[in-house]
Structures are given as C-alpha cells and as structure tokens.
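Supplementary notes (optional reading)

For those who missed the lab, this is the record we used. Protein: glutamate carboxypeptidase II. Length: 727 residues.
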Amino acid sequence: METRMMDTSSLEKTPLLDRTATGAPSARLLIAGVLLFILLLLGLTASPPSKATYHSLFLSLGDNATAARHLFALTRSPHVAGTPANADAASYVRSALSAASCPAHVASYDVLLSYPVLRSLALSPSPPPSSAPATAFHLVQEIYPGVPYADAAAEALPAFHAYARSGSAAGPAVYANYGRVEDFANLRAMGVNVTGAVVLARYGKIYRGEIVRNAAAVGAAAAVVYTDSKDYSGDRWFPDGPGMPPSGVQAGSTYRGIGDPTTPGWPSSAGCERLSAAEVATSGMTPGIPSLPVSARDGEAIQRSIGGQAAPHDWQGGEGAPVYRLGPGPGFLNLTYIGNETLATIENVCAMIEGEDEPDRYVILGNHRDAWTFGAVDPNSGTAALLEIAQRLGKLRKRGWRPRRTIVFCNWDAEEYGLVIGSTEWVEENKEMLASRAIAYLNVDCAAGGPGFHASTTPQLDEIIKQATKKVQDPDNFSQMVYDSWVNSNDSKLIGRLGGRGTDFAAFVQHVGVPSIDMFFGGGYPVYHSLYDDFVWMQKFGDPLFHRQVAVASIWGLVALRLADDEFLPFNYISYALELQGSTKTLEDRALGMPVTFTPLYRSIEELEKAATNIDKEKKALELEVGLVGRRKDLLKVRELNDRLMMAERAFTDREGLFHREWYKHLIYGPSLHDDYGSNSFPGIDDAIEKAKSLNTSDSWRFVQHEVWRAARVVTQASLVLHGKFT
C-alpha cells in the first residue's frame, strides 16, 4: 500500500498560521496539528483498491493501437521455426515482456525439424508409354499486385508438408474427396482401385497427416492435397476479397506424434537420449509415402485429367468447377519430394508476475509464435494480444496491484511442426511442477480471423468464460457485450471441448490434466497457412480496427485475473458431471444392443455430482465464515479447498494412458483416433467401440467394457479428490 504524505509547505502561507491574524497563534497551531494528524492517519489506514476494482481498470486499458503495433512488428517477414527470422521474433517478444515489467527468459530445446530441398509435380494426360507431353506445375504462390512485403515474401519457404517422406512416386490420379477413412471405404465400394495411384484429396474435415496416412493404408503411392475453391475462395479472393487466391497453398505438418519426434515422452534437453532417424521413420508417426500441398488452380487442373465415374454429389466442387470424377486416370502424376530433417534450436519465451500470497500456484497464458509464412492471424494475432495483456498488467502493478497467485506468460516455438513441439517439450520438462501447482492453462492462437467469438474449455471453467464475456464489449457491435452475440450465434454447441490436439493446450490437458481454455474470434479463415496470411489481410478483413484482438485480450486477461486473484477458485464441477452424463448417453446409444453396460460409469458420475455439490456447499460456508470473522482466519482451509478444486482434473488421467497412445493420459478428453484435430469425450471407449463394430467379436466387445470400467475408475478418483477425505 502506498502512503501519500501531505505537502505541508503550503500551510505556512495560509491564514490559519498567520501570526498577524486575530486570535492566539498557539491555538491555531494546535488545530492545524490535529488536522494534519487526522489527514495522515486517514492516508495510512485507507483500504487499497479491491481486486474487482483493478479488474475493471484492466478492462479500461485496452489499446487497439498497441495491438496493431505489436502485430506489425511480428509479421514483417516469414518466421518458420528454427530460422533466424523466428529467433528475431523471439527477441521482440522477450523485449516487449521485459518492457512491461515482466522479466523474461528463453527455454531452448534442440528438436527435429523438416525443411524442403526439392519439390516437383508433373501431370501427363495418359500413363506411360504414352508420348504425350507432361505439364510441370510451378508450385509457386503468386505475389499479389502492390504487396508491401514483396522482398520478404520472396524469403518464404516453398509450401510443403513437414516430415513428408522423401522420394519419388508416379501413378494414375484418383480423387478421394477429403481423404477420410470413410471416403476411401466409399471408393472401395464404388469399385475404384487406389493401389499404386497418386491420391488427390482436398483440405478440410481432418488433419492433413491423417489424409496422407489413410492414402498410404490403402496402397496409394503418394498424395497430393489441394485447397478447393469451394471451401477456401468464396466470391472474391485476396487482395480484393478475403478468399484464398487461385495460387494459394496451405502448408503444414504431417507428423502424427506430439512433441519432438526424437524424444517421444521425455523433454528434448541438452545431451538427452534420442531416437535415431531410422527409428523415427519406423515409428509410424511420420508418413509412409511422399506428399505435396498444391493450390486450387493446380488441383482443378488435375481434376480435369481424371476420368471414370462421376463423384457423388457431396464430393463435387463449387460453381464453375469441372465435374469431379474418381479415376483412376487417365491423368498420370509424377511427384518428387526431398526434405532435409535436421536438429534445430527452438526458443520458448517465458515470463512471470509472482503471486503475493500464493507464489507457488500458477495461472499460465500461452500462445505460439512460429508461422509457416507471415502468420498475421495464426498465430501472431494471439501473440499481439498476449503482449497487450502483459502491458496492461504492468500498468496495474504501477498502481499497486499484485496478484494473489503467480501469472506465467509463455510464447511457444515450433507449434506448427508437430502440433505443439515447443509447449510439449516444456510441459514434459516441468511435468511434476505443473501437476502439483498449475491452476489453469489459457491458450489463444488465432485471436482474430473474423467476426464471432468461440471458446473451448474443460467443463469446470464454463462459467468463468461466460462471466468474462459479459463484461467485454462486442468489437463488432458496441451496443452489446461479447456474451450477447456469442449466445445468439448459430453454433450448435456454445462451448467446445479440448479433446483434439490442434494446439498448445494438448500437453496441459491430455498429458498432465490441467484445466484449460482455448478462445478466438473468427473460426476458420480462408488464407490459413498460406503466403497471404499477412498484415494487409488482417487490416482489410481479419480485424480492420484491431478491436477483436483487444476484445480477446480483455476476455483472456480477465479470466486470468479471476483465476489469479479470487480467494476461492471459480471452478464448477457440477457442470462437469452433467457434461459427462450427456457424453455417456451418446456412447451408450452407439453400443445399443451390444453386450456392454455403462452402469459403472453412470454410478461414478453420480458420485462426482454429489462430491461437486458438497464442495460447492463447503465453499459457500467458508466464504460466509471468512466474511464474518475476518479475512485472515482459516486461510489453510481456503488453500486446502482450492487444492481439491485444482487437483480434481488431474484425477481424470491414468498412468497407462490411452490404448496404443500412451502419451495421452486423460481418459475424458483426447483426440480422435482417425483425426488429430477431432475431439472425443471418453476417447478410449470411443476407439474401442469403433474397433468392436468393425470386428464384432466377443473379445472386442469385452474390451469396450474394460474401457468403460477404466473411465469409471478415474471419475471415481476425481470424486474422492473433491471430497478430500480417505475412504
């Protein structure tokens, strides 16, 4: 608390102390002394502003000019992980955090990254030994007229698939829609032979690494993945509109593991144990066939070369597209990709504001920095928002605010390569600390890619994200709050769940069991992972006035402040139990008529609901007790209750992890077996049902029952943690 001393020099010049004035000087001096004492006493005993007052002040400090300035600095050049440009971006983030009174440091790791050396793709109108000339594709994203970043754009890496198998392949073209398991099953049902073919599939629906894996599983020689105009271009393309230009290509990783490929399950620290390149290649986590990403223009050219029966209606392209056919051939593709996989240094930038009362309890805010090109939306709109939060909190500190618990800022590296390499290495290195001390992890990648707020959480945090959005003005309609537009959106489900591994929350939720949130404005945006995701696109279409980035920073920061400052953690496990009841009913319906009972899981969820209700009553009683007898009474009781709320999420993890996916420890939320972007509740049960439906043997359904029991056991453990007493 600051003590403001009164300036007494002016008192000597007032009539009260004027010895020539009427009355006894000693009496006047006595009165002045008493007044001065009272003023000093009031200054010394005045209560500091409440935490809620500081939270309101935080919301008033949003600055779209600051967000724009940070984004402009971060997106001046392409900055792929492991390059000097990304190291420069790390230096900028570190300097910005330090300038906001958050001293920052770098946590470095040496990890296996992949870079393109040679790419080629040629199309012949018919297979050998035809003498018809082949057309070689340029595989270049065209620089649009008037681009202010022409020189920097020329520095961008050619669009490629990270960790793609090096080699050459040739074969007739076969169209496989989105490359899902069901798409290849449909091809088989329609009599289309994919063996030895080069598969043409379009982006969307599932992770690109799964597209390539699925193609390899049915015997394809290679895969070409393109951005279909129907899904990405819209009515107008950039720079005249927001859509992907005809030459635009979506780059990205095809690695199916998580973290550094050479250190699966342990941190990639200096001098550590590593898998060899051969062991990585045979792990099944990298593709077994070569692949390339191509543009809508090139994809359409290949489509025109394919004959055979017409594809189903929902496999067709948009207006003006040719009729999509299945093949194989007669168009014949010859593909070559050579990559360089090498150990490179990545840099996570971390900073913290130490808690005043509970410095050993951590609220972590995270965003990644590396990008395939300029990264204006993904991820640096989130980076700019993170830095804006740090600056706002720096201003609060100058006005006397101190958090109850420690706030940690993390700017991750190499997220794009392995879907979260930098954060995974850090989590694996700090696993035990996080397991015993982390309150929550709050993630933002694409802060702003268009209108519309979206959030995904672990369910105990549903209410806090709703409360925060009720206090932040809608950046697209100042007459209402974000919550108002959010609940009136067309989303079938207001709040999503964190089962996919699409970004940096994965290691926190699915490996350690830390309550988490991911949030953003805009959803999918058409120039994703292309050369056109730059500052100009953001200014024109993503967030023209940078109000959306400020709104995300306000919601993100307010949630962090509540988690860091509230005496009682604002967790609600009653909503968690209700969510699990619904998820269980969905799984039960899928196994209807099969020799499986979900009774053990329903019973454990009932116990969870009772435990959640009891701890909620405990919290209310303790709040009343603290309010009646004084703030400092029973602080240990408050701490113990908060620890139960914090640790209950950890109880949903199992040491053995998911079957054949042991790194994923969380039995409630995890990625779909056939889509790393997809999110499943009870992923172990879901995987087992899928397999049992395919095999339909007594053993396969018995394994489903085993997974039901496993899930029931972790839910029971969470109930015991909330109760806080031995059986």
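If you only remember one thing from this example: Residues 1-26, 38-45 have pLDDT under 50 and may be disordered.
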